[in-house]
């Protein structure tokens, strides 16, 4: 005991330069009777840097003698109230525009607090003494032996029980120096798994967690809401009939015409030479978003088995990439459907690759990891399909995705959101529903679709937003841009869920919305040159006068008369958002188009901000699952991997 006391005192002294803090709370805010949900309490340590003051007029911060570096993240605290415009949320701000003892705060990592909107607007000086500390991604990480204890959890509703998890396993109970569960710095969060009995008390409750970090007093607390509800299942009622799908013929033509750009399906050798970059670092390649599964579906849909040559080539490359890294690939590159579809009796190497990709992407309900969690759930589902064995973390993985939907669509506590990530999560949850029949899934799919329609879709401009937040702490890219360029190509990852919900529930609202999205799905680059007006049609081109382009015909198609394949041309005039005229030399005469072209051509922008750089990745993200939308929309069951 004496030795333990000495160690604790020594640790406490060394900890004097560090401060522990509760970073955030993520996870479920609602729990249905008879079900579970996950909540994460995130915490970390911060190395103290000193005091600071602010000038609300110039937004500059002064910390005398600081050792901060440009673009370093910081944590803020105050003995009173922080200056207006600042928050104690850890690692929300970075340092920029350092000049001696002064600097500014910005959101994320833009250079010199740019662009406009990334710098923090400080509105008053606050009260008390303000301190700042280094974020741990910049400074030394404390010894992993320092435990943090969850002492008590109060306010839990009657009929609701909980378990405490440290990463992927139950935390061990400890009795020294205090009774409770603990987490170490290597696992900088507690995971609380709540289970509501079928008789749990209905309504909202406020739960308070008390946390102790060795060497610090007083204890810290964090409170959050948990509402117990009765689940009313969405009845499964197939539509009585399926109206014609608008622009269906155009979609069919686009499917095979654009696919030819990346692969000639007639031979394996041609596929290997023409399919484009597949290096793991080239994410614009056709392999990304599971090009293997994309081509496998095209083969089934068209009845042309030759497309499987393209799928086979991609499968072999991607499988070997996974195995060479022993499954330790980034979570956003985990594509299991194509691997499963590529083995009739499941080639052993594919089975091994799928197994190694199941990973630990079930750990937390942190919305920043929703994409990885979605891919992780798909991998675990695929694993069960090929082995007949349920993965240990399958259920928890799905629960975390559902908890993220609370953050995103019910209580608005999300910290970061990309709409297309939501579509990836819906895809994974629908597969989970097919496997387990979990009745929460249809309810949450509806909640998510309704929120996206109301908050991320501009029904006037027919554009989908990339991130629904304005510039600032919850958005650094593509923010609330439904009126500008937006990111409508990403609709390809959203619309299938609307088709599925229509097919499942019979609610025609979701057919109408899905059809709106389907019609807005870009099917470019399509050049329709006509001799009558010498203009090219490039939907949503985003081009400006004098931008340079390189144009060539796809296999089986011809350029409009007057254009030469692989010819560099310049934008002569922007007719409107969908049409341009071109010239052979900058500022030269408009090229006379002597005959109509036939369909699709390749377009590369050598300068400017051309939307026509239609990559293999974009093709896969649009057609990987829009085939499923078409099938659900027509009353059919989509292909399984």
Description:
It is built from 14 helices and 23 strands. With 641 residues, the chain is of the alpha+beta class. The strands form four sheets. A six-stranded antiparallel beta barrel has the order 3-4-7-6-5-8. A hairpin with a 2-residue loop joins strand 6 and strand 7. Helix 8 packs parallel to helix 10 and helix 10 packs parallel to helix 12. It starts with a helix and ends in an 8-residue tail after the last helix.
How are the SSEs ordered, and which strands pair?
Blueprint: H1 2-14, E1 18-27, E2 30-32, E3 36-55, E4 60-62, E5 73-78, E6 93-99, E7 102-107, E8 130-134, E9 147-154, E10 160-166, E11 169-170, E12 173-174, E13 180-184, E14 189-196, E15 203-213, E16 220-229, H2 248-259, H3 268-274, H4 291-302, H5 307-324, H6 337-341, H7 348-357, H8 370-387, H9 394-410, H10 419-436, H11 440-455, E17 457-458, E18 463-464, H12 495-505, H13 508-520, E19 536-537, E20 548-553, E21 567-576, E22 579-583, E23 601-605, H14 616-633
Parallel strand pairs: 2-16
Antiparallel strand pairs: 1-3, 3-4, 3-8, 3-14, 4-7, 5-6, 5-8, 6-7, 9-13, 9-15, 10-11, 10-14, 12-13, 15-16, 17-18, 19-22, 20-21, 20-23, 21-22
Helix pairs in contact: 4-5, 4-14, 5-7, 7-8, 8-9, 8-10, 9-10, 9-11, 10-11, 10-12, 11-12, 12-13, 12-14
Alpha plus pi helix count: 14
Question: What's the alpha carbon Rg, rounded to whole Å?
Answer: 27 Å
**Widest sheet, order of strands:** 3-4-7-6-5-8
Strand content: 15-25%
Number of separate strands: 23
C-alpha geometry: globular
Low-confidence regions: 1-16, 137-145
- The secondary-structure class comes to alpha+beta
Distance between the termini: 59 Å
Q: What level of helicity do the residues show?
A: 25-40%
Sheet with the most strands, sense and barrel status: 6 strands, antiparallel, barrel
Mean pLDDT: 82
């Amino acid at each position: 005991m004496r030795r333990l006391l000495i160690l604790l005192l020594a640790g406490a002294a060394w900890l004097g330069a560090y401060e522990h803090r509760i970073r955030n709370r993520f996870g479920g805010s609602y729990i249905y009777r008879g079900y579970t949900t996950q909540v994460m309490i995130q915490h970390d340590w911060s190395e103290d840097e000193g005091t600071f003051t602010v000038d609300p007029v110039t937004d500059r911060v002064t910390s005398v003698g600081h050792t901060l570096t440009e673009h370093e993240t910081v944590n803020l605290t105050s003995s009173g109230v922080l200056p207006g415009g600042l928050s104690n949320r850890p690692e929300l701000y970075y340092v920029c525009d350092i000049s001696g003892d002064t600097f500014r705060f910005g959101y994320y990592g833009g250079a010199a607090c740019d662009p406009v909107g990334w710098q923090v607007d400080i509105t008053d000086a606050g009260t008390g003494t303000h301190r700042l500390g280094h974020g741990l991604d910049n400074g030394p990480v404390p010894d992993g032996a320092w435990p943090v204890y969850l002492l008590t959890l109060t306010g839990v509703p009657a009929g609701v029980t909980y378990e405490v998890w440290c990463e992927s396993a139950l935390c061990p109970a400890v009795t020294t120096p205090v009774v409770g569960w603990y987490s170490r710095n290597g696992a900088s969060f507690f995971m609380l798994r709540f289970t509501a009995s079928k008789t749990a008390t209905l309504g909202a409750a406020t739960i308070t967690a008390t946390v102790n970090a060795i060497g610090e007093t007083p204890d810290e607390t964090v409170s959050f809401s948990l509402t117990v509800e009765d689940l009313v299942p969405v009845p499964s009622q197939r539509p009585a009939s399926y109206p014609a799908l608008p622009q269906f013929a155009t979609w069919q033509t686009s499917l095979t015409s654009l696919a030819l750009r990346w692969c000639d399906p007639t031979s394996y050798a041609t596929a290997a030479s023409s399919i484009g970059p597949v290096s793991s670092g080239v994410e614009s390649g056709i392999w990304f978003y599971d090009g293997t599964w994309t081509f496998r579906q095209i083969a089934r849909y068209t009845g042309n088995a030759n497309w499987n040559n393209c799928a086979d080539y991609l499968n072999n490359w991607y499988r070997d990439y996974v195995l060479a890294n022993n499954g330790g690939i980034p979570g956003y590159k985990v594509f299991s459907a194509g691997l499963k579809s590529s083995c009739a009796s499941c080639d052993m190497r594919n089975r091994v690759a799928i197994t190694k990709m199941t990973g630990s992407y079930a750990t937390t309900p942190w919305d920043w990891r929703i994409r990885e969690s979605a891919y992780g759930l798909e991998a675990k589902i695929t694993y069960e399909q090929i082995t007949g064995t349920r993965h240990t973390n399958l259920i928890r993985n799905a629960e975390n995705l559902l908890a993220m939907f609370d953050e995103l669509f019910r209580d608005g506590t999300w910290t970061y959101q990309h709409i297309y990530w939501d579509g990836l999560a819906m895809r994974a949850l629908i597969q989970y529903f097919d496997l387990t029949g979990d009745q929460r899934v249809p309810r949450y799919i509806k909640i998510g679709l309704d929120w996206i329609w109301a908050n991320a879709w501009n029904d006037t401009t027919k554009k989908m937003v990339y991130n629904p937040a304005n510039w600032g702490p919850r958005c650094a890219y593509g923010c609330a841009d439904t009126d500008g360029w937006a990111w409508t190509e990403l609709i390809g990852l959203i619309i299938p869920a609307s088709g599925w919900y229509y097919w499942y529930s019979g609610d025609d609202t979701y057919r109408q919305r899905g059809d709106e999205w389907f019609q807005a799905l870009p099917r470019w680059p399509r050049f329709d040159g006509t001799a009558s007006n010498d203009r090219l049609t490039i939907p949503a081109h985003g081009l400006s006068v004098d931008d340079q382009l390189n144009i060539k015909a796809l296999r089986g198609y011809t350029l409009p008369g007057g254009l030469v394949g692989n010819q560099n041309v310049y934008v002569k005039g922007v007719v409107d958002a969908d049409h341009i005229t071109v010239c052979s030399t900058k500022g030269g005469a408009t090229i006379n188009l002597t005959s109509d072209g036939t369909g699709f051509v390749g377009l590369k922008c050598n300068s400017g901000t051309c939307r026509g750089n239609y990559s293999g990745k974009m093709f896969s993200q649009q057609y990987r699952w829009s085939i499923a939308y078409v099938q659900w929309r027509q009353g059919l069951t989509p292909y399984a991997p």
